[in-house]
Structure prediction request, 1161 residues.
Amino acid sequence: MKRHGVVVYLKSSFIFTVFISAMLILGGSPSWAAPKGSPWNEDYFPNVKLTDQDGKSFRFYDDLIKDKVVAINFIYTHCGDTCPAETASLRQVQRLLGDRVGKDIFFYSISIDPEHDTPKVLKEYADKFRINSGWLFLTGSKEDTTLIRKKLGLYRDGVEANKLSEHSTSFMIGNERTGQWMKRSPFDEPKTLAWLMGYSLSNIKPSRKPNQVNYSEAKQLPNMTKGEDLYRFRCASCHSLGKEDGLGPGLQGVAKVREKAWLRRWIKEPDKLLAEKDPIAIDLYNRYNKILMPNLRLNDADVEALIDYIEANGNPAQ
Amino acid sequence: MYIMNHFSATDSAKIKRRDKTSKLRTLSYNPLKLSSLTIAIAALSGFFVSSSPVQAKFNIPTDSTASPLCISGQPRCAAPFTAKMLMFEEFGTQAMPNESNVATLTSGMPGVADCQSTPVGTALDTFLNEPIHPFPTRKANDILPNAWADKIKKDCGLLPTNLSGVLEGRPGGEQFAHQRWDEFMPQAYFQSAMTGARINGGLRDKYQRHGYSIGEFGPGGLYHLDNNSTKGTEVKIHPNLPAQDPHSVWTFDGTLPPKLLMARYGEAVLFRHYNALPIDVSANNGFGTHTISTHEHNGHDGAENDGYAHAYFYPGQFYDYHWPMILAGHDSINKGATDLRTGAPDGYGGITPVPGDWRETMSTHWFHDHMLDFTAQNVYKGNAAMMNYYSAVDRGREPKDMNEASGNSSVGYGCHYANPNNANLCFPSGSGMDWGNRDYDVNLLVADKAWDNSGQLKFNIFNTDGFLGDRITVNWEYKPYLDVRTRRYRFRILNGSVSRYYKIAIVDESGNKIPYHMIANDGNIMQYAVPFPNAASAEGALPEQGIAERYDIVVDFKNFTGKKLYFVNLLEHENGLGPKRVVPLVDVLSGKYKADGINGDPVVGKFLEFRVKGCGSKGTDACTDLSMNPADYVEGNKGDKQMIPVNRPTTQELQAAVNRTFEFGRSNGTDAKPWAIKTDGGIGLNMDPHRLSAAPTLPDAPDGLGKVEIWHIKLGGGGWSHPVHVHFEEGQILYRGGKTPTPWEKYARKDVYRIGPLADSTSSVDMAIRFREFAGTYMEHCHNTQHEDKTMLLRWDIQHPGETIAVPTPMPEWDGVTYDVSTTLPTYKIGDLKAKAAFVLPK
Prediction:
């Protein structure tokens, strides 16, 4: 009746040849009625009005979360480092979940800077990241969005009130119907997040068994270098190691094309290069949808390790 | 936050629920307009977000309203020290049956009426009373279907019709097969079901070792029960509070009293844990999840039995936990089992010798849920039990007379204080039985709780800074009292809270501090007893006690006939981040400190009352007390008597040690906010069940001692407190805050290492730890379980020498468990080389 297999581990799943477990394909939904007695219902969540990037209005509870599996994070579009990285990372999760996003799973990025982030600005932002359907970028009044943050446990009085850059980058995934909510970081493994949203939280039956291989076929543990580790958790959401472009350029041969000294600086402090109007930096910025390369706060040793890794692994086979 | 006190539940209930959403919303960010009506409306739902212009200083209970002591429909209000404290009820182990004798038994766990229900109590008791079947297996029993397969498929729609799930939810195959199964074949077993609150049916009466006939549990004793039974005990936090709903409290058997496992070294135990929780995950009154994993904190057990956070199991399934009950050093020290100090009570006054290092003897444990993301909610909801280990040195048997104490009549009863060749330390316990007397050896589970206006337990799942309750309970009762005799008692105090620390002082009615001794730290008997009050501990109270820490103390009530004594909590919290300060005892007792929730933390103050009685039929005579006097075992005592000496690693071992650094604090990179653990100077990471952050190696030779590693546990700043727990083996603290640790840590073995801003915690701990006997996947985490669930948890594996393929990562589903391949950090083998180079060994 049971199998003890290992799902094949695809290293490239961190790039765009995505690994989609059959688990994540929508099966049937349970037939029982919505629960009684959960305090995390319409009495708890505010039903405030929010507007998406297309100017459409929604009620937070009725239209956006009721009976849905959702991921909700808080962003502001002119945020330099955190939000683009966060958005890029969630975008990977969205891809892993495939066409279920927009059907029974929804992503919401709510602006914490509504004065600046009008629907038009949010539209540009979403376009920049080439976001698919099922992911809304929302804005509303400061009071309303703050209330939502508080209700989701993503706002601490006295800490986050005044400074946008101090906002919590954690986000909530949850299922309103079952009343289950979890706080997660956008830097969790996309595969794990996809499993949680697609199977665990969804409370569904699988439509078929996932593919198995035996443990004896399991690959030896990748003995990961510091460079690979950094690449996976900090770079892979935007850059492939091959030629293929993601949100940013593919990295194949980048160490040959660019001067080492420039590359080091670009990885370490892209914000400064852009501020200095470095021509290559400006060119990249313009070519890649004006998505800011984030300053990842890496130290010199990190940068060297990353460059070594990209040099050694940036080839067409990858 | 205590605005509901004057407003009765009946009044609130009259208000139409429909109105409240809009009003609450409008008003909660216009706080100046708050009327009593809207406050009541907000309170009715139990949770609201405080947005008042001046932030309330004490957010207790976390983001919610005060737990009422007067509930409509109850005869009286719940007042402090009016409820009799519940004594733990034994699970009771039984001898393993012959496999052939149970082969014909085919009954399964009783079914459920619908997706939201738990089994009927009487049917469940009948089933749990049957001998264990199907017979336990080394690899998971994933041949048979889920006991509730039909329900899960047809009514609840969680399995397709062509699948039937599995009966055992343990991950299948070799990876989670019981290690050394044949060698440590279970000799005793017990089975219980995690299920919704219900009335105790007396299921465990016959398994109580005292049989309600011996000592203080017998007729006329302090802890005797009418009809020799716990039958009829309801799950109530106080007799004047309502019974808990099956969706509010989930616990072992679904019943109170809280449960205790009494186990002996050398007698391998199998715990068959059935999951009898609702199939519908939403049938939980707002908190807790129905998938569970059971961690025996801090057992020397194979990883498959350690309750890995991603080896959880589903309703309708069981999981067989195999606890071999061996001492660390089993393979390398005292292999021939010739040292009588390394042994277990044999039941007849003798000692059954076992291999291993007697200096690794453990005593006071607990086991609890460890479900990924939901540990805090599930443990708070009731998934926690205590476990006492019994051994030659800690037998739970004091002598009847001085002849026994000398060891002349029975080797196992002879006391170390009477003759240093005797193993038994003769801690306060009782003498009616061969081992495990609990007459004067009392388990205390201290935890803060909160409940809604109807008296049902509540929890805020969104505030992940930590959750604080506003009511303190001992053994699930709100501020109870306990009758005691005029003699020495041992108390095994467990902090079973979610986010709250305690600092416990003991006083008499006039507020005088009472002398007492600490004898064990984290369940491990210390080298020397530490007297309290002492100069190193503020207010003469016990040190800060973080979540999951256990302190065993000995208190002598000899001079207090007819008096009342109190445990007093002095540690103030404002929110769940960690303790704020130690409140002066004098301010607490004088009432200068107002523990009303507005001016002070409502959980500061007296919380357990002892009513002291003498012995004899009238309760006025002096008691005989031949238990060990801990004063004879303090550091510097004449003759240097020691309880259990710490087996310190050699300088050579420390020099050769792999060093690892775990920093608990803010992450770096762009994500400055999320809290995380940085391993070996790497980036801050959250829990990923696939990722090995560290992998110590077993000894090269089968009988090797086990390599020592040095782990540096650091606070990443920010004023938070973290009680960091490392699974599997105890560590020895080399430095606390860079300095020599205090006596209660210097002479102890620990499994929880507090770091934080307060005096007893400090910002770093450097400790030495060994790995031996078992391999596989273990964890390290912050035991403020709200921190653990959201970020501060990591996986580490013990690997065999030369091992290159890590244990794969179990992915539990309704239909059974598949595996994913695991990943590693770059430093998982080598650790932190910089820290190693910089570390100065203690002299």
Summary: Chain A has two domains: 5-200, 226-313. The beta strands of chain A are 5-7, 49-51, 57-59, 69-75, 105-111, 135-138, 171-175, 180-184, 213-214. Chain A touches chain B through 92 residues (CB under 8 Å). Residues 82-97 of chain A form the longest helix (16 residues).
